[in-house]
Amino acid sequence: MRRMRAAVLYGIGDLRVEEVEVPEVGPGEVLAEVRAATTCGTDVKILRRGYVGGIVSYPMPFGHEWSGVVAEVGPGVEGFSPGDRIRAGNSAPCYACPMCAEGKYNLCLNRTWLWGAYAEYIKVPRQILLHNAQTFPSDLSFEEAAVAEPLACVLHGSDKVGINPGDSVAIIGSGPIGLLHLQVARQKGAGRIFVSDLVDERLEVAERLGADETVNPGREDLASFVREMTGGLGVDVVIEAVGLPQTWAEALRLVKRGGRVLEFGGCPPGTSIEVETELLHYGEVTLMGSFHAAPAEFERALRMIADREVDVRSLITRRMSLEEIAEAFEVLSTSKKELKIAIIP
User: Using an 8 Å Cβ cutoff, are 297 and 155 in contact?
Assistant: First the structure.
């Protein structure tokens, strides 16, 4: 059997790079040589605190944002050939469960998952190859194509919260997800956009990507700042892109009457927040969450990146080897100046 190097997660905080067998492709599957895998805040959360039940089990191949080159194709594969540049999402719906019947493909009850991006090779299952994989042109880098996954999730959330032309928007968190939300909001014609973060370097990136107002809540009260800049009203749309109960709660302090709050960042399992009933009832504030994305949003994300409608190159701030992956996650956990690290097997 052929062997390859891959990152395997054995439990919380237990990530190892080891030699494993190269997957064998079956009917309808392809084997891809990974050329770039990008780190994600979800990976950091899974590594440091675990994840929601039913999605992660140990030991498991690690990583889910990637692109590469088709190395082998299994029997019956159409539309993909050896040498093609390929990216694939980390899931595909079954199209048969009650959620899929409602068109809520991101909430599929029998989803096919794909993990194992931090490796020399990755096998794309038939269901994902059929519904959530695309080739891409040579003028798009492997690193950029890998970022289609988080952008797809952002598109899903942004469409759900419904940003209208002229809407004022506040984004809590200027990490990769917050910066993608910023650019999508700008694409949709948002008016004044506020971005907050505790790291000044991240706020500088937000300014370069189109934020009108930035604020560091470590030095200035965020809600007071937003209220003052909006004549005491608050903003039309608030997007939380951190994933902590305290920032979820903070989002509710920024929204105006009749506004909308998208709690996008995933919080630790078992956590909760309190919501004032008056805010929802008398203030008619709409509070919603967002999870994952549907195949059409993955395809749309790749197209937007290829058309340079969204700048993902600014989000990739370092490149490291597969053997350095533990160090990469240590960097992401301790130095918030880094945004995304491209792992090059």
Answer: yes
